[in-house]
C-alpha cells in the first residue's frame, strides 16, 4: 500500500508519458511514420561524435577501479574545475572548484537544492506555465510551489503576478529560460524585472531568496542572446544539464553552479553536498563526468531544431492557429481550439497528432508541441493540423 501523499499525486498526474505510450501503440497499428508524435521532449538530433569517442577512449585508457569507483559526492575536482573554467571563459565570471557540484542532471540538482534550502511549508515561486515536475521536487519536501502566471500575450514573466506570489515563506524563485513548455526565452528586460523585485523582497522579508535558474536548454536558442542570470542577481544558482545540449538524457549528467557572490555560499554548498547522500543520489556518474573534460563546450547541431521550428510555426500560423514564436528549446506552445485543452488533444489524436495538454504545465487552454522529431514528420503533419483546424470551423 503506497503512501496517501503518493496516491494523491498519482491521481492528479496528467501523464505525458501515458500519451507517449499511446503513441507507441498507434505506431504499431499505423506505422511509426504515420503518427505525428509531438508529446515528449526526447532529443532527436544525434549526440556530437566527440561524446561517444571520448567515452570509448576513457574506457580504453583509464584504470577501471579508479574510473568506476566512488568519486567525492560533489564530483571529480578536475571536472568541477573544467566547468568553472568554462563558465569563467564564456561569461567573465569567477567560479572556483568550490562553487560547482556535479549532479545527475538538472532534475537531481533542483531536488537537492530544494532539500538544502526548504523547510516544511516554505515556498518556491515559479512562472507558469512551468515544467510539471517542479511541483514534485518541491512538494516531496513538503514545500509549496507558488505559480506566477506569465503574460498570456508574450509568455514573458509578468510583474504583477510575480509580486503577488511572494510571502515571508518564499525561499526560492525557480526560473527556466529557454522555457519548457513554451519555448520562450526571457528577455533582458524580464530578467531585470525579476532581479529588482527579488532584491526588494529580500529587503522586505529580511532573508536571502535564492534564484535557481534551470537551464537545460541554454544552448538551444535560435539567433537570440540569453542573459547570464548571475550578472543580474547575486543569489543565483545555475542548474545546468547536458541532457539536451549533448542529446544524452539517459546518461544523467549536469551541475549546480553557486555564484561566488551569493549569500552564505559555503553553507549552501555544504548543504548540497550532504543532500547528495541524504537523498540517495550519492554522486553524478563518474564516466559521464570525465567525458566532460573533452566535451564541456560541445553541442548538438541546433540548426536541425531551428528548421523544424520555422516550418511548424510558419505553417501553423498560416493555417490560422494562434501560437507564440518560440525562440529556444524545442517546444511550441499553441492555443487549443476549444476551452478544454485535454479534449482538444483527444480530438487531435483522430488525426494521429499527439500533443501534451497545457493543463499538465499549469497552462490551461494551450497545448505543447515538442518538435524534437524528424523534419519529415513535421512536414507530413501539416495537412493533419489543417484538417484538425477545419474540423472546428
Ligand atoms: N528542467 C526542465 C525545464 C526540463 O525540461 C527538464 C527535462 O526535460 C529537466 C529540468 C530535467 O532534465 P535532466 O534530464 O537534466 O534531469
TrEMBL record:
PROSITE patterns: AA_TRANSFER_CLASS_1
Uppermost EC category: transferase
Keyword Transferase: yes
Domain Aminotransferase class I/classII large: 34-371
Keyword entries, A-Z: Aminotransferase, Transferase
Top-level taxon of origin: Bacteria
Entry's EC annotation: 2.6.1.-
Cofactor(s) needed by this chain: pyridoxal 5'-phosphate
GO molecular function, one term: transaminase activity
InterPro entries in UniProt: Aminotransferase_I/II_large, NHTrfase_class1_PyrdxlP-BS, PyrdxlP-dep_Trfase, PyrdxlP-dep_Trfase_major, PyrdxlP-dep_Trfase_small
PANTHER family per record: ASPARTATE AMINOTRANSFERASE YHDR-RELATED
Family per similarity comment: Belongs to the class-I pyridoxal-phosphate-dependent aminotransferase family.
Listed name of the protein: Aminotransferase
Protein's organism: Eubacterium oxidoreducens
Lineage: Bacteria, Bacillati, Bacillota, Clostridia, Eubacteriales
Amino acid at each position: 500500500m503506497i503512501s496517501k501523499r503518493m496516491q494523491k499525486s498519482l491521481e492528479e498526474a496528467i501523464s505525458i508519458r501515458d500519451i507517449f505510450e499511446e503513441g507507441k501503440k498507434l505506431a504499431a497499428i499505423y506505422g511509426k511514420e504515420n503518427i505525428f508524435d509531438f508529446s515528449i521532449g526526447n532529443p532527436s538530433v544525434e549526440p556530437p561524435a566527440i561524446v561517444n569517442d571520448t567515452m570509448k577512449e576513457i574506457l580504453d585508457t583509464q584504470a577501471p577501479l579508479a574510473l568506476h569507483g566512488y568519486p567525492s559526492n560533489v564530483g571529480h575536482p578536475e571536472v568541477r574545475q573544467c566547468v568553472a573554467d568554462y563558465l569563467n571563459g564564456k561569461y567573465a565570471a569567477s567560479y572556483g572548484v568550490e562553487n560547482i557540484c556535479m549532479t545527475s542532471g538538472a532534475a537531481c540538482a533542483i531536488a537537492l537544492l530544494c532539500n538544502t534550502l526548504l523547510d516544511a511549508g516554505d515556498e518556491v515561486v515559479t512562472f507558469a506555465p512551468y515544467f510539471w515536475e517542479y511541483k514534485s521536487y518541491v512538494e516531496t519536501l513538503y514545500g509549496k510551489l507558488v505559480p506566477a502566471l506569465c503574460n498570456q500575450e508574450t509568455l514573458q514573466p509578468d510583474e504583477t503576478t510575480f509580486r503577488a506570489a511572494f510571502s515571508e515563506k518564499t525561499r526560492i524563485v525557480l526560473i527556466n529560460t529557454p522555457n519548457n513548455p513554451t519555448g520562450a526565452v526571457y528577455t533582458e528586460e524580464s530578467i531585470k524585472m525579476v532581479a529588482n523585485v527579488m532584491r526588494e523582497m529580500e529587503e522586505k522579508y529580511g532573508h536571502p531568496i535564492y534564484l535557481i535558474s534551470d537551464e537545460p536548454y541554454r544552448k538551444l536558442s535560435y539567433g537570440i542572446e540569453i542573459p547570464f542570470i548571475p550578472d543580474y542577481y547575486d543569489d543565483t544558482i545555475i542548474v545546468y544539464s547536458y541532457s539536451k545540449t549533448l542529446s544524452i538524457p539517459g546518461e544523467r549528467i549536469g551541475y549546480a553552479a553557486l555564484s561566488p557572490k551569493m549569500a552564505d555560499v559555503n553553507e549552501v554548498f555544504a548543504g548540497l553536498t550532504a543532500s547528495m547522500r541524504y537523498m540517495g543520489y550519492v554522486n553524478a556518474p563518474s564516466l559521464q563526468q570525465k567525458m566532460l573534460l573533452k566535451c564541456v563546450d560541445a553541442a548538438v547541431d541546433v540548426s536541425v531544431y531551428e528548421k523544424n521550428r520555422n516550418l511548424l510555426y510558419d505553417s501553423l500560423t498560416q493555417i490560422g492557429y494562434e501560437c507564440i514564436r518560440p525562440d529556444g528549446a524545442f517546444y511550441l506552445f499553441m492555443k487549443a481550439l476549444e476551452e478544454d485543452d485535454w479534449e482538444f488533444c483527444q480530438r487531435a489524436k483522430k488525426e494521429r497528432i499527439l500533443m501534451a495538454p497545457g493543463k499538465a504545465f499549469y497552462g490551461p487552454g494551450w497545448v505543447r508541441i515538442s518538435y524534437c522529431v524528424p523534419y519529415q514528420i513535421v512536414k507530413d503533419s501539416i495537412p493533419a493540423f489543417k484538417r484538425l483546424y477545419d474540423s472546428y470551423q
